[in-house]
Amino acid sequence: MFQQHDPVGSWSGQFASPLSQGYHAQPQAIVPPALPQAALPVVAGRRSGALLVWVIGVLAVVLVGLVAYFLQFLGTEASVIGMFLALLPLAGVLLAVRLVDRWEPEPRALMGLAFAGGAIGAVGLTLLVDLGLALVLDPASFARSETFTAVVQAPIVEEFFKGLGVFLVLVLARRHFDGPIDGIVYGALIGAGFAFTENIQYFAVSLIEGGAAQTGATFFVRGILSPFAHVMFTSVTGYALGLAARRGASASAALGPGLVGFAGAVALHAFWNGSAVFGDFFGLYLTVQVPLFIAFIVGVLLLRREEARITSARLGDYAAAGWFTREEVRMLATPPGRRAGLAWARTLPGNRVPIMKTFIRDATRLAAARQRAITGRDPGAAATERELLARTAHARAALFAR
User: Fold this and answer.
1) Sign of the CA dihedral 299, 300, 305, 306?
2) Residues 130, 245: contact at Cβ < 8 Å?
3) What whole-number distance in Å separates Cα of residue 237 and Cα of residue 350?
4) Which of 108, 127, 124 is nearest to 58 (CA)?
5) What is the pLDDT of residue 24?
6) Which residues lie below 8 Å from residue 168, measured CB to CB, with a gap of 6+?
7) How far apart are the C-alpha atoms of 278 and 144, rounded to whole Å?
8) What are the residues whose beta carbons fall under 8 Å from the beta carbon of 149, sequence distance 6 or more?
9) Can you give the pLDDT at residue 49?
C-alpha cells in the first residue's frame, strides 16, 4: 500500500471442469509433410499498433515522474539503498516465475513490458489516485484513516491497475496469451514489478525514520515473509483472464471473467492487509497465508500438467499425419522426455543441444498454435502452423545430419 449477466455461469454448460478445453472451430486438416522441406522461415510477429506505442509512451512519462518523486521525497541515498534491498526478493520471485514459464516460455520483450507495467504504470497510477483522494477527502474522515486505506482503498486501487496491466497484455499479444499459465505468468510479473517499486519506498522510508534496525525489520516482513504476496494476488486475475482466453473468449468477452478474478485478488489483498491491522499477523500468516501459498503452488503444478497434456494431444495430431513419430511426441511433450532428448543431443557430433532446445520450443509453440485453431481464437493460426512445421522439420533434420 502506498501512502497517499454471470460471466462464469454462462460457460458452465459448455465445459465439464475449469480445466476442460472447448472446441469452438474446425481447424484445417493437417497436410502430410512434403520432402525435401523448404528453407527455414522466420515466424512473423504481429504489429501491436498504436496501442503499444501509447502504452510505452505512458510508461516512459510515468517513469520520469516516479524518479522525481523518489528523489524529491526520499533522497538519492535512501532511494538507492531501498532499490538494492528490493532487488534481493525480486531475484527469487523472477526465478520462480521462470520455473513456472519453462514449459512454453513467453517472449522476453513481452515479459519485460509486463514487469514494467507493474513497476512503473500500476505504481504511478496508484500514486495519482492516492494523491487525488488526499486532495478531495477530509483528512479527519474515516475514508482517509489508515484502516480504510489499508483494507479497502489499497486492495481495490492497486489490484485494479495491476489487473488492467494483465488485460492490456491480453489485448496487445493475444497469440501469446494461450491459457491460465500464461495469465499467471503475466500477472506474477506485473505483481513482482509493483512489489519491487513499492519495496523501494518502504525500505527507504524505514531507513530514514528508524535506521538499520527498522529497515531490517521491514525487510524481514516484506522481503523474507511475503515476497510473493503481490505476485499471488495479481495471478488470480491473470488466471481468470487466461482461462477465458483458452476457452476462446475475445478480449471484450474476457472482461467478465477478468472482473471475477479481480474480485478474488482484492479479497486476498484485503485479507492480507487486514491481518496486519486487525489480527495476529504472524499467527494468521502461519495458519492461513502459508496454506494459501502452498495451495497456489499446487494449483500451478496442476496447470503445468494440463499444459503438458495439451501439448501431447496436439502433437499427437501431427504424429498421426506423419510429421513426428510417437516416440518424438513423448520426448517433446513430457518433462522426462525433454531431459532424455537433451541428454541424447549431447552425445551427437558437435554441440546439438541448442538445436534440440529449438526443436522442443518450436514444437511446443506448434501445439499451442493448433490449440488456438481448434478453439477458433486465432485467425492467423494456419499461417503460424505452416511456419512452425517448417521450423520443426528443419531442426529435426539438423539433429540427424551426419
Assistant:
1) positive
2) no
3) 45
4) 124
5) 56
6) 51, 55, 117
7) 17
8) 1, 4
9) 63
Prediction pTM value: 0.84
Distance CA 77, CA 204 (A): 9
Grid coordinates of 233: 494476488
C-alpha span between 207 and 218 (Å, rounded): 9
Q: Which residues are within 8 A (CB) of 158 and not within 5 positions of it... i.e. 6 or more apart?
A: 1, 2, 122, 126, 194, 230, 269
Cβ neighbours for 308, distance < 8 A, ≥ 6 positions apart: 103, 333, 334, 335
The number of residues in the chain equals 402
> Would you give the distance in Å from CA 342 to the centre of its chain?
27
Residues 369 and 51: their CA atoms lie apart, in Å, by 24
d(CA 236, CA 216): 30
Cα–Cα distance list, 59 to 117, 120, 124, 128, 271 (Å)? 7, 6, 9, 14, 30
Cell of 56: 510505452
Q: What gap in Å lies between CA 18 and CA 12, rounded to an integer? A: 9
Report the alpha-carbon distance of residue 8 to residue 276 in Å, rounded: 32
Amino acid at 2: F
- Per the CB < 8 A criterion, the answer to whether 325 and 316 are in contact is no
Q: How far apart are CA 397 and CA 390, in angstroms?
A: 11
| 344, containing H or E segment | helix 335-346
Alpha-carbon distance of 21 to 43, in angstroms, equals 26
Q: Give the cell for residue 45.
A: 510477429
The whole-number pLDDT of residue 41 equals 45
Quick one: which of 301, 395, 309, 268 has its CA closest to 99? 301
Judge contact between 115 and 59, C-beta under 8 A: no
pLDDT in tens, 152-186: 999 999 999 999 999 999 998 888 888 899 999 99
Residues of the chain with pLDDT under 70: 1-28, 31-49, 377
Sign of the dihedral defined by the CA atoms of residues 263, 125, 175, 297, in that order: negative
Share in percent of the chain as helix, strand, coil (round to 5): 75, 0, 25
